[in-house]
Amino acid sequence: MTSSSPHIPVMLDEALAMLDVKPGGRYLDATVGLGGHAEAILRASQPDGRLLGTDTDPDALAASTQRLEPFGERVLLRRAWLDAAPEAAVDAAMTPLDGVLCDLGVSSLQLGNQARGFSFQSEGPLDMRLGPQDEAQTLTAHQIVNQWSSDDLADLIHDYGEEHRSRRIARAIVRQRPIETTTQLAQVVVDAVGIRPGSRVHPATRVFQAIRLEVNRELEHLADFLSQVRGVLGIGGRLVVIAFHSLEDRIVKRFLRDHSSGSSPVFRTLTRRVMRPSDAEIERNPRARSARLRAAEAI
Length: 299
Description:
CATH superfamily of the largest domain: Vaccinia Virus protein VP39
Oligomer: single chain
Strand content: 5-15%
Low-confidence stretches: 1-5
Number of helices: 13
Helix content: 40-55%
């Protein structure tokens, strides 16, 4: 079952401002998802701006293909993991680029499809693969939950979920095996650590985050993507990254710090402090609450 919730691109106005979108520009949306940011970029770059959108999720690409169809030859969509997006831009003869956008959030399409196993709000299989049709991606959440040792699970939940109760949770998971569904896993976590009164964060949230990051190697893909992105940006081209948790944001922050200082900087940081969504946006779209945006200009 697919979510019927409308897709609302996060921090859209801030992203467009930081990209400094211009008519005739060439842009890469490296996580095109459902196409909300891409549509806005194409409108702002009329009449002849072009955009390459990449994503690893074939369902997302199908949705964005339909959404962006009115822009015709101005838009090109390709399936690619995040770290392959810069190469896709070269192959498509889109470089040098005027702007690159990377929105690292999990989309409403993925969260709302119970068969994908990203959410514990409804029962689904323990999958969590962003590219389920990719034969090379064999690791699933089910394997991690049911086959990893207690120590390895604890380290994963601690390092990628930033959960200090990771060992208690890992021991509970091992005791309750086999665990087959998302709701089963969430209940095991609740039984292990309880629910804090007044907390807005479900205790399983960090566990699901940790497993998803490992299944998809998301932090590795992000670091590899950042290492290549300057090579596809023209002078004055903009890089905008929207992260949703501290692990991603820390990678982006350190990258921009290291590459905008020293004797041979290649970026000029545009966001001296991380940008956060407005209260009004969070009220309209609660999923935006954890978003944080950083931007830089190629020099």
